[in-house]
Amino acid sequence: MSQMRDDDHKVSRKSNEDDLEQLLLQGIPSTPNTQEASPYKTAAILHHDDAEQETFPDHDAQGALGYFAEASQDMATAGLELGLGRHFACADFCNQATEKAAQAVSLLRTGHRTTYDHDLRSLGEKVGAPQEIQDEMALLTPFHPENFYADTPPEEADEIISAEQASSYIQSARKVLRWARGIVLTL
To answer: Are residue 31 and residue 55 in the same domain, yes or no?
Structure first.
């Protein structure tokens, strides 16, 4: 009986390998089912302040989800850095998380990242963030390393930012991520 099961498994496995080989060699056949739009082709976002729906036909949903995942990882790292007493690193990761969250919204809405000059408020404005989110983003702008190290020697970075300040930057970044999550994860 065990031999019969092994033989069935080998036949099924061989059939799957043959099917996969055909797909690789010939591509996916064009049928009405494969010509349909993928679930990522269009997304509808329901705005909280009204019932009007907005669609984004040229969006990059997978890219947006990837960027949002990176933003979430950066938030976790910011918390670790705070716990280790590396306050500038914490603020830097908050800056990065905020940028990636906004870029996730940009990818979803336009299909590409938005160019900007490390001014997170400007990025927020360009991607359509509400004013209160732009204000939170502005608090994190100074912590892009290029900007920060222009006036601060690296060895003094952690002394300039207190644990309380770093903790408040985490709160600001979390607000931005909550806003972005409400857009990106409604696919």
So the answer is: no
| pLDDT tens for each residue of the chain, 187 residues long | 555 555 554 555 555 566 555 545 555 444 343 333 333 333 333 334 443 444 455 688 888 999 999 999 999 999 999 999 999 999 999 999 999 999 999 999 998 998 888 899 999 999 999 999 999 999 999 998 888 888 888 888 888 999 999 999 999 999 999 999 999 998 6
Amino acid at 37: A
> Are 97 and 172 contained in the same domain?
yes
41 token code pair: 């082709």
**SS3 for the chain, per residue?**
CHHHHHHHHHHHHHHHHHHHHHHHHHCCCCCHHHHCCCCCCCCEEECCCCCCEEECCCCCHHHHHHHHHHHHHHHHHHHHHHHCCCHHHHHHHHHHHHHHHHHHHHHHHHCCCCCCCCCHHHHHHHCCCCHHHHHHHHHHHHHCHHHHHHHCCHHHHHHHCCHHHHHHHHHHHHHHHHHHHHHHCCC
Are 56 and 10 within one domain? no
